[in-house]
Every structure is written in structure tokens, then in C-alpha cells.
Design brief:
Helices cover about 40% and strands about 20% of the residues. It has four helices and six strands. The strands form two sheets. Strands 1-3-2 form a three-stranded antiparallel sheet. Strands 4-5-6 form a three-stranded antiparallel sheet, with no helix packed on it. A hairpin with a 4-residue loop joins strand 5 and strand 6. One of its GO terms (molecular function) is DNA-binding transcription factor activity. This is Metalloregulator ArsR/SmtB family transcription factor. InterPro entries: ArsR-like_HTH, HTH_ArsR_DNA-bd_dom, Metal_resp_trans_reg, WH-like_DNA-bd_sf, WH_DNA-bd_sf.
């Protein structure tokens, strides 16, 4: 039996979103942009842990950050936010939907 060669970039993106906190961050950003304080409150996560997860998501192109004064604002890039499938994210190789 042959196993289909899965794209390394797909596997790495799936590995990134396999963490429950990162997945929760992506789901939280589906409703719009948020700063770190808003995400901390919504997800009940410590700032240092949240910053680590946001860095991993940003490094993998799954979130974007813009600075407004001293505040970092996080959003989903247009290619990740999948408004055509309801509450879902598009990883390029597959879509993940939230119930």
C-alpha cells in the first residue's frame, strides 16, 4: 500500500494548531481583532504563555500582528480566515471548522 506524500508545510501547520491554546487563540480571533489583554481575559491564559503561543502562530503565518502605540493587535490573515465556511480556518491544505 502506498502512502500519499503529505506536504511538509501542511504537517507543520497541523502540528502548530494541535495545541489546544493555539487553537483557542485562532477561534477567538475569528470574531475580529484582539489585543493581548483581551485574549488573556477571554482564554484565561497567563501573558507569558499567550505571548509564546502568539509568536508560534505568527511565525507560521496563522496570525498577523500590528502595533498601535504600545499595544499589539492580533488578527487572522485573509488567507486563514475562511468566511465562506462559517466558523472555520483555512490552513491551505485543509480547513478546520469550529462548532
Amino acid at each position: 500500500m502506498k502512502i500519499k506524500n503529505t506536504s511538509p508545510s501542511c504537517a507543520s501547520k497541523l502540528k502548530v494548531v494541535s495545541d489546544p491554546t493555539r487553537l483557542a487563540v485562532l477561534e477567538a480571533l475569528m470574531s475580529g481583532q484582539k489585543n493581548v489583554g483581551e485574549l488573556m481575559e477571554q482564554l484565561d491564559v497567563e501573558q507569558s504563555l499567550l505571548s509564546h503561543h502568539l509568536s508560534v502562530l505568527r511565525d507560521n503565518g496563522l496570525v498577523e500582528a500590528t502595533r498601535e502605540g504600545k499595544t499589539m493587535i492580533y488578527t487572522l490573515p485573509d488567507n486563514v480566515a475562511d468566511s465562506t465556511s462559517g466558523k472555520a480556518i483555512n490552513l491551505g491544505c485543509c480547513k478546520i471548522s469550529f462548532d
